[in-house]
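Box 3.1 A note on notation
Throughout this textbook, protein chains are presented in two layers. The first layer is the amino acid sequence; the second is a token string describing backbone geometry. Keep the layers aligned when reading.
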Amino acid sequence: MAVEQARSDALANFRVAPWIAEAAFLALLLLIFVTLTPFQVRDPNQLALGESGFSGAGDVWRQVLYLGVFAVIAISAFDKRGFGLVRAVPLTLAILLVWCVASAQWAAAPGIAIRRAGLEVVIVLSAMLSVDTVGPKRSLELLRWVLAGVLIVNWISIPLVTQAIHQPNELDPSIVGDWRGLYYHKNITGAVCAISALLFLYFALERKSRIDWLLFIGAVGFMIMTRSKSSIGFLPIAIAAGAVYRAVSGRGLDRTIVILSMIIVVLLGATLATMDANLIVRVLEDPAEFTGRTAIWAAEIAFIHDHPLLGSGFGSFADTGNASPLHNYVGGSWVETVAHGHNAYLQLLVTIGGIGFVLSMICFIVQPAIAFWRGARSTSWLKPLLFAVFVFVILHNILESDFLEGDGPAWVAFLLTIAILRRLSHDEAQLREPAAVESWLTR
């Protein structure tokens, strides 16, 4: 009995040290933003499989590492919150993940789809639980260190690493000479640089930090050299949106107008994209800048028309060869090499259907917008930073596909934004309670 009691007491007193949760979160960030294959060679033979260079087969080490990191994060979260850790994940997001897993059952390649859905679940839970366990500000601090390191490595790599620049053997000659740093494609690099610039700008304004001003300039400069037009175009809009949000924060009517205007702009863009391919062609088609995208959009719209509710199954869009849902909607086999739909809103409709699309819009746009609208006035630049990242990503997804893209850097950055916003909103709600306010004031 004494031995059993001692064991029980030992288990009761067992605590996970805070640094373990931080180390696991840092490992997650390194897996996401550095990847297991930095400066990967873009072999034209592999590119025939798709822009990502993969055939859809699973990478065992990648899966093991993500599962290992998730296990540590989950244990740390349980140690801190107990079964209350489930509140770190919004209910609608949990339902969306269940729908993604379920949709793999009717995918043309169910094995690939279920594996990708499983990875998505692991990534989402890891990001949400990490922020809740480590805390919003510490999470941003660790993210800042990782992104600063990535930026420095990117700049150093240009004169030293051949693969840091797109080479003349590219299948797409328009990207030859564009900087990509340690990432596989310049558009990924451009998005990471834009998000990094927003984060460095936040620390520069919040702490009056000269180093962060230099990092901000460095991130913008490298982004320009990637010639990633979507990131270059949307970053100034995101910065302006963050500044406007801070100006109207705490002023109900002005804040409502700004938030609703942003939602209307995004939903209008998504609606136009799903309803009128010819309009997109007339407005956006420029062979030098949008080569092939309108053909992809037209094929997506045709598929959505035939499969409006269920879609083709999660993870079925890219790197699935002739199992691609668009295979029978275009002439030729070029669609088999497409890595994403260049519009996340259309791609969501193609893969998880109208039901998944509605859930996604609630999770990714409506709920965050409500949280921003409810936010209390503050002198901090934190909420404006989150709003700027929010605006950048939802606009970026009009021309790229980030939502539910596994361990894509822009997608994970968006997840972290949602997680931090959720934690801040929860803390603000507690402070609005009379007892909590009294306790806070007397601390």
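The CA atoms of residues 168 and 176 lie 6 Å apart. The first helix runs from residue 2 to 13.
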